[in-house]
Amino acid sequence: MRTFNIISPAHSLQAEIQQKIDNLNKPKGSLGRLEELAMQICLVQQTLQPRLCHPCHLLLGGDHGIEREGVSATPREVTWQQMVNFTRGGGGVNMFCRQHGFQLRIVDMGVDHDLSAVPGIIHGKTAPGTHDFLYQPAMSQEEMNRTIDTGVRLVDECHQEGCNILCIGEMGAANTSPSSIWMSLFCPLPLAECIGAGSGLDGKGISHKQQVLQQALDNFRKQTPAHLPDHTSWAIRYFGGFEMVGAIGAMLRAAELKMLIMVDGFIMTACALAASRLYPATTDYMIFGHCGDESGHRRMLDSMDARPLLQLGMRLGEGTGALCAYPIIDSAVRMINEMNNFQNANITKYF
Known about the structure:
This protein has 351 residues and is an alpha/beta fold. Helices cover 46% and strands 9% of the residues. Helix 10 (266-278) links the parallel strand 5 and strand 6 (286-288). The radius of gyration is 21 Å and the shape is globular.
């Protein structure tokens, strides 16, 4: 796996940024999270006049071998059907991208269907779905490396077009299963506390899912080399979907390029968690858009000291929760750039 040069933003401008925020014509601290966001964005961009440029959304699709074990209420054919639907503008992600001015890139990272002739889908397929991680690693080391590199390439293309804020979403039946296992391993937490209904399992289905995932986790631990100093990369390869590993590569490259990274719900938070375990400074570039209803999502966010902007009960995926939060990010930038200060407004500063 390639290495990344990810460093936390310098804090030399922090005092000056804070002074500018405090001198805006408002009571000190009265714009709450907007002030915190403005500080984060200014530090990432190393400026007192931040900008949001050419926002891009990567929609990454992939299928999972573990789906064949009956751990998802969504059959795998829905993955490719929805990918085609996205090209026609009919998905939730399409609506929010149009609303907020995001350029949408729909990418086949590993869908178990031939989408090569579908206009509007970028070919990034590593393989037609991962292996069933109940029995073997989801992907080989070579496949993982190639998938990471595809995520990097996608971000490079966005960055070359002037993008400095990136949103990432996913489409893949059964991808809450690897997300739950990553949460259990990386938080760490008992697996039972990390498993939920996914796309709509009933109580019996959740119980079956837990049994399958526990067996897969037990098998993983038996196969983990005793001398392995850090199992993060091994766990990513063993359980991850191609769309998820591609998202990790995209997040790491975006942080390396000092871009803002908008993080969506349970699956993308699991990817962010995995990325942060590889390179902890990655979280400095992340804005967590939404906390969903999937079991344990809040605890996974807490493990990264992440504070999501919204909690709307959404669990669609596709990046929709993060996209809904974009106007708040935009408001933070407008606040620091467009609000007047006490001196220019001829208002007595009373604190």
